Amino acid sequence: MPITAISGAASGIGAATRAALEAAGHRVIGIDLRGSDIAADLSTPEGRAAAIAAVIDACGGTLDHLVLCAGVGPQVEPASTIVGVNYFGAVALLDGLLPALQKGNTPSAVVVSSVASVHLPWDQNPLAGPITAGDEGAIKQILEAAGERSGQLAYAGSKNAVTVAVRQRVKIWGDAGVRLNTVAPGAVATPLLQKGLDDPRYGQQIRDFVAPIPRHAQPAEIASLIAYLLGPQAGFIHGTQMFIDGGIDAAMRPTQF
Ligand SMILES: NC(=O)c1ccc[n+]([C@@H]2O[C@H](COP(=O)([O-])OP(=O)(O)OC[C@H]3O[C@@H](n4cnc5c(N)ncnc54)[C@H](O)[C@@H]3O)[C@@H](O)[C@H]2O)c1
Fold it and tell me: What percent of the chain has pLDDT over 70?
């Protein structure tokens, strides 16, 4: 039975992924703030370290798959929390759990990024420098100076950085025998999207962001792509980002890929 750790397993895409993988015979170790197997706050260094230790304990040091879904939307304050969960939370779990994954059976990992990852390219991402330096203090300063734009900057900047972090790890993870990819969803019907729609600062903008397939994805549709990427049929897919966005990236950037 494959053992799979999932962050953000209590809700939305993480909960749908848990259900899909359990139906396929996985034993799932869920991580979330509450309502899962391991309670941990991935916005803090202590919470990330506790989550890694608890997963290693629960799987006995050998993990087959890892899915990182934990994340927060642009409305969360302070905006530094968005970077803390979406970037630092994900990267800490990737690096901390690689040794356990290396011992797994045909191991693989998927990080849930976003179409927003391409809205702020790395060479224009003001958070790129302090993220590379791991300087959370400098990130806070940049976000405070951004004022009303801080939530969007933190969300797009952290999603861009987490996709870059996956791509930068492709050689080390390939050498370790562990496949690693990202998925980039558009709007998915989850509590995270609803909180954005309900926020007076972001609601209209999100409503205006209509994909060529003009509806929101269901979490189960994202879960099925994640399950595919984890499994043997995706055995040569490594270091890539798969958009699952109803065509919105192609519509917005037809010549860039
Ligand atoms: N819903 C969308 O439209 C959409 C679009 C693109 C990308 N995404 C990404 O998909 C991922 C899953 O989001 P979702 O839409 O399923 O949202 P969701 O709110 O349903 O689920 C996110 C989960 O992450 C957990 N979480 C948040 N902060 C945490 C913390 N500090 N420590 C531990 N767990 C924490 C939450 O408790 C929740 O269970 C996120 O990374 C999000 O950025 C979502």
Answer: 100
Specify whether the CB–CB gap between 230 and 108 falls below 8 A.
yes
What is the reported pLDDT for 159?
98
**What is the per-residue pLDDT for 141?**
97
The answer to the question of residue 251 being in a domain is no
Tell me the pLDDT tens digit for each residue of 43-65: 999 999 999 999 999 999 999 99
Domain containing 72 — which CATH number?
Answer: 3.40.50.720
Domains held by the chain: number: 1
Mean pLDDT, to the nearest integer, of 131-137?
93
- Helices 45-59 and 90-102, axial angle in degrees (round to 10): 20
Enumerate residues lining ligand 1, CB below 6 A.
Answer: 8, 10-14, 32-33, 40-43, 69-72, 85-86, 112, 114, 185, 187-188, 190-193
Give residue 96's domain range. Answer: 3-244
Residue 60 Cα distances to 25, 94, 166, 224, angstroms: 19, 17, 25, 27
Q: What is the pLDDT of residue 149?
A: 93
Q: Which atom of ligand 1 is nearest to the CA of 216?
A: 3
Question: Would you say 51 and 68 are in contact if contact means Cβ atoms under 8 Å apart?
Answer: no
DSSP 169-220: THHHHHHHT-EEEEEEE--BSSHHHHHHHHSTTTHHHHHH---SS-SPBPHH
